[in-house]
Amino acid sequence: MKKRRPRIGITMRIELETDRFYLSRHYSEAVAAAGADPISLSLIPQREYISSVMAGLDGVLLPGSDSDIDPLRYGHEPHRDLGNVHPIKDETDLLVLEEIEQHRMPLLAICFGMQILNVHRGGTLIQDIPSEMPQAIKHQQGAPRDRPSHAVRLLPESQLATLKNGEQAMVNSHHHQAVQTVGRALLATAWTADRLVEALEDTRDDRFVIGVQWHPELGWHQDDFSQALFGRFVSAAVLHAETSRELSGASARP
Known about the structure:
- The protein is α/β, with parallel strands linked by helices.
- The protein has helices spanning 25-33, 47-54, 87-103, 112-120, 129-132, 159-164, 224-252; strands spanning 7-11, 13-15, 20-22, 37-41, 59-62, 107-110, 124-126, 150-154, 168-171, 178-181, 186-191, 197-202, 209-212.
- The chain has a 9-stranded mixed β-sheet, sandwiched between helices.
- The mean pLDDT is 95.
């Protein structure tokens, strides 16, 4: 009997001008290449829908977005250089994060995904790096989007340092916001030269949660570090699926 591939849910974006949900192809292609089946999740912020659709998943990828998180969600007033806010995106991702926490589901959070993870855990964000941190390096590199444009320092013995087999990596950069204060049960594990947080990992041993500010889905086929990250994420999803089936089987026995 052929072994079932793990299923990874990926929340989509919304194009307000045309009322379309959409998602960059690179996320799904990277997940599929790592051995899992990508499943697109519509931005429907209804608890019943989210709970139902996630019942068939083994992991979640929260991707980047062309929107900013509403700063009212972390107790701040909007900065003059805040970008567009899409409430439907914020609300859906936050409901997904509730399910992830409840079921200890593996999570890979990328760019906006890492920021919404941090906000969900009670953390705060820098709303606009250029105006709030004028001394910062350039974090919006433009095209080509897959070009590694700056270095990050990795925390020794973190999961990312283990995957990289070193304490420094070159990554791309496409963001104007960043983590300010780190949320509950999260640990900063990567920084740029300007000391901005570039990665978060869960501090608890019983779950896999990694957030990165860069975009490993861009140029993954040429980057060993990105391939290792997606591979580790899918391996965590396989383990979660196996554990869930064992628990389900045990509860079904008389």
